[in-house]
Amino acid sequence: MTIGLMLTLAAFALVDSTSFGTLVIPLYLLLAGERSRVSGQLVYLGTIAVFYFLVGVALMLGLSAVMDGLGEALHSEVAYGVQLALGVGLFALSFRFDPKYRAKRGLPERRFEPRVGGPRTMVLLGLTAGAVEVATMVPYLAAVGVMTTSGLPAAQWLPLLAGYVLVMITPPLALMGLRAVTGARLESRLERLRDWLARHSASMVSWAIGIIGFLLARDAAVQLFFAPE
């Protein structure tokens, strides 16, 4: 395990922390619920963190089995060439999520405003958000891929996965703490942040895909062109 690997995973986690399920929904819940009812928000964040962690474990075990079967093939020039092409493709795809692109095609703006409920409601909301984002959790899939290709044993990648999901939910936890300390003084700013995130969600997706594509392409390029023989 290297410092570079940990920094790369931290970058992926920070990008993941800005997704709809990990930041926008928690902001809606934060502003919709009373200050004394933080338990529901914590249940939601705990649910989505556990969901991501279990998905990561399943992916790591599945990808590890594939790695064992393919062996050195995944470390060949062809494999890194495929990774490079995938990274470049994702980077190019990110431009298609640009809000201006959507506006030109008349695509409607979608808004989702969840409300704080009981523990069952919050668990269901967390599972639903996680399931919806499975198909779009590009940063997480990239992080799992990086850990797999690094050949880390379970004793190393399990705490890395746990650390990943903790970093991922740190921003909403920090906002909850700030709200508890500052009270109503932070309310208007949180509302503006929520509205800004809702308006720019498409841009965030575009940036997320573009960043992940760049990181994947950079890693492949290093292995192809700059790695020692």
TrEMBL record:
Transmembrane segments annotated in the record for this chain: 6-30, 42-66, 78-97, 118-141, 161-181, 202-226
One Pfam family, short name: SfLAP
Domain of life, source organism: Bacteria
UniProt KW Membrane keyword: yes
Keywords: Membrane, Transmembrane, Transmembrane helix
Stated name of the protein: Sap, sulfolipid-1-addressing protein
Record has Transmembrane helix as a keyword: yes
